[in-house]
Amino acid sequence: MPRELTLRDALNEAMSEEMRLDDRVFLMGEEVAEYNGAYKVSKGMLEEFGPRRVIDTPIAELGFAGIGVGAAMNGLKPIIEFMTWNFAVLAFDQIVNNAAKTLTQSAGEFKCPIVFRGPSGAAGQLAQQHSQTFESWMANVPGLKVISCVDPADAKGLLKAAIRDEDPVCVMESELLYGLKGMVPDGDYVVPIGKAAIRKEGTDVTLVSFNKMVEVCKQAAVELEKEGISAEVIDLRTIRPLDYQTLITSLKKTNRMVVVDESWPFAGVSSEIAYAMQRHAFDYLDAPVLRVNSADTSLGYAPTFVEEYLPNPAKVIKAVKEVMYIKR
Questions:
Q1: What predicted TM-score, i.e. pTM, was given to this entire model?
Q2: For 12-29, how does the pLDDT look when each residue is reduced to its tens digit (9 = 90+)?
Q3: Which of 6, 62, 127, 286 could form a disulfide with 255 if both were Cys (CB 3.0 to 4.6 A apart)?
Q4: Which range marks the domain in which residue 102 is found?
Q5: Per-residue CA distances from 168 to 97, 103, 156, 307 (Å)
């Protein structure tokens, strides 16, 4: 029977189940053990698995990411938790230059089955150095898979798939939505990497997003419905590999698309989707693909800056009306 779980509990369940199934899997990061995780995602895991498999680290992302990469190359399956992907910038050398390239640099002799996970994106008034969105950064690197979702069932199923994967996988979560609840199936529930989900069927316009911006799209779709506009909402779930076919199929039905992406507008996930749609589905477009992104600047601390900076339902609705040529 499906049970209602929070996002943090779904992630905890995924890691715990995989650690019970495979003694090569271990968790390492700042405060994951004694403190039960900065966001309590690893609550109770130290007690069950002990300090050899749930390991607290110093504040040294480059160091413990490197230990994880070396462990993965030698047959283990590390889960490296970053307190936030903002701190993972310090570990990019290990993620980008080592984990992502191990398979090709070794001519296929070595694999690197490692998961890097933690929250990405803005989380309230945390200012410039703690509010960045990293999906497009990681997805730009060949050799890395990138997951970004907030639905608890997807979070469990995709994290389990990531842990079992033989390639390095970056899992992006949301600090603001660790308490979000959803129904999660019992048993060995695994979601395949690389497949988008249709959260709401629609006929007039396709809204595409990922992570917590999916919730923004769902809110916008409810308001649009009141005005007689039927919006289809697609949750990418996986950024790389990207499920282009689901997007194209939806666009063939609605003929209009708005992509909502929390990252900056230049060279982001929304840019790739807009290009791909005009390249592969141009004949089905009744209007240019529009993007709703965060402002092209660093995020300030003041709450008025946060509100102005981020995508919201009103901005999405405005873009939808533009692609439908509805005058305001």
A1: 0.94
A2: 999 999 999 999 999 999
A3: 286
A4: 3-184
A5: 12, 10, 17, 35
